[in-house]
Amino acid sequence: MSSEAPELNFEQALRALEDIVHKLESGEAPLDESIALYEKGNQLRALCQQRLDAAKARIEAITLGPDGTPAGTTPFDAG
Questions:
Q1: Whole-angstrom distance between the N-terminal and C-terminal Cα of the chain?
Q2: Where are the beta strands (DSSP E) in 1-79?
Q3: How many CB atoms sit inside 10 A of residue 45's CB?
């Protein structure tokens, strides 16, 4: 991955990925450029997934006790 990609936040990486998808779908890029765009897009997709996984791992559900006060936390389960 390029040296600038890890510094992108989720929104920036997603925006860059959307731009790449648009260019690829429009057919405006020659073959060599399309291949390079595809590779960069795949790297950005992986970065976005990494950022989402990290955010998911940080989210915890608060468990309430019988009296309604917080009794602890449990890992997030989107399942």
A1: 30
A2: 60-64, 70-75
A3: 15
Check: CB of residue 40 under 8 Å from CB of residue 20: yes
pLDDT of residue 4: 53
- Domain membership of residue 15 as a residue range: 5-75
Instruction: Give the type of residue at 35.
Output: I
Token duo for residue 26? 């429009």
Rounded Cα distance between 15 and 6, Å, is 14
State the total domains in the chain. Answer: 1
CB 24 within 8 A of CB 34: yes
Residue 1 — pLDDT band, cuts 50, 70, 90? Answer: very low
**CATH code for the domain of 14:** 1.10.287
Helix or strand or coil: residue 27? coil
Please give the model's pTM, rounded to 2 decimal places: 0.69
